[in-house]
Amino acid sequence: MRNMTVSRTGLRAMALAACVILAGAMTPAAAQTVKIGVILTYSGPSASLGEQIDKGLDLYVKEHQKDLPAGVKVELIKRDDTGPNPDVAKRLAQELITRDHVQFLAGVVWSPNAAAIAPLATEVKVPFVIMNAAGAALTRASPYIARVSFTLWQTSYPLGQWAAQHGMKKLYTAVSDYAPGHDGEAAITKAFKDAGGELVGAVRFPLKDQDFVPFLQRVKDAKPDALYVFVPSGKQAAAVMKAYADLGLKADGVKLLGPQDIVPDAELPGMGEEALGIISGGTYSAVSTRPQNLAYVAAWKRAYGVKSIPDFMSVGGWDGMAAIFSVIKASNGRIDPDKAMAVLRGWKNPDSPRGPIMIDAGTRDIVENVYIRRVEKVGEGLGNVEFDTIAQVKDPWKELNPPK
To answer: Which residues of 8-47 are buried (b: 16+ CB within 10 A; e: fewer)?
Structure first.
């Protein structure tokens, strides 16, 4: 009888265990948390760049967390790389992977930082969604990278074609001396020369240099029709604008061209009327009247105040989270890195604030509209008014430099 009692007890225990297992299996992804490691610049002179991306991704989570599968939530674990510091960025990524066990890496303002993180993403198979860093070669640095922002080739090559086709014959380039600057310089030079224009000079700024006057003096002496400038978005863009005005380049008739980085929407109020007329190639404008953008700007102002202005970096954060949410919904919150990348390759969003976007399945880089914009008065302020559209542009660098 004792053996029978034990047997019955064992049977009851087994039945109870089975019920517990069954109940657990029937619970819809209870307490399933997807951890996303966000690396951005939150301090130092470039903190405004990280702040724009951070606000964009936070706003997406706030507006769309209700769309996640039942029982699934996201946890954003944020780290400050303090600026263009590849060693710091790599260390933070290592900590997020090994200590915090994140399932995604995201963010990153600076291309050198993204390049330092890329081998880690490959080694441990963590999908890395780049929300800004614009060096053209980055997506080739790891099969686990997808980019939702842009490349400098993407915004500068169409601008060079446009400039040469609209009466500008002589061009001078002035760029920050790191990968995106080199990309922008190469892109506009090739496009401009192929379209019949002449490059009359080129100069590169030290990345952290804020005194642009000595460099732009060389431009003034060369007397080009147009000056192409690339510097990191934010305060450096405002400093370049001041040097351009102080040297009288605008009064001399030298047209200032550049990618959207030189006239970020959030910095226009501080640039003043000297910014009027600047032509840029860009992927987003806060004053666009696309219904999706009107809704985005309204949500932004509700969250951050009526005087706050989103710029293109904020949309990188917003769209980056949209892509990650698509993976989470497709997997019901159970992230497998290779399946995640399969979702990201070919991912489409027809309702981005910047217009329809997709991630090219072959390159894992963004395909999007590039707009030719002019700084004009809009209401009581300034805005980048889109007046021409080059539809669904792939990264030209990858088109011109196929993998060997």
So the answer is: eeeeeeeeeeeeeeeeeeeeebeebebebbbbbbbeeebb
Residues 6 or more apart whose Cβ sits within 8 Å of residue 142: 118, 119, 121, 122, 128
The span from the CA of 274 to the CA of 352, in Å, is 31
Which residues make beta-bridge pairs with 359?
366
Give this prediction's pTM.
Answer: 0.88
The two three-digit tokens of residue 289, written as one number: 């009247």
Over the stretch 105-146, which tens digit does the pLDDT of each residue have?
999 999 999 999 999 999 999 999 999 999 999 999 999 999
Q: How far apart are CA 245 and CA 239, in angstroms?
A: 10
Residue 324 dihedral angles phi and psi, to the nearest 5° = -65, -40
Q: What domains can be seen in the chain, in order of their start residue?
A: 33-150+290-364 (3.40.50.2300), 153-282+370-400 (3.40.50.2300)
| Three-state helix/strand/coil letters over 106-161 | EECCCHHHHHHHHHHHHHHCCCEEECCCCCHHHHHCCCCEEECCCCHHHHHHHHHH
Q: How far apart are the first and last CA of the chain?
A: 77
How far apart CA 208 and CA 231 sit, in angstroms, is 10
Q: What span, in angstroms and rounded, lies between the C-alpha atoms of 303 and 312?
A: 17
- pLDDT tens for 262-317 read 999 998 988 888 899 999 999 999 999 999 999 999 999 999 999 999 999 999 99
Answer for the pair 312, 291: CB distance below 8 angstroms, yes or no: no
Q: How far apart are CA 212 and CA 218, in angstroms?
A: 11
Report the number of secondary-structure helices (H) and strands (E) in the chain: 13, 14
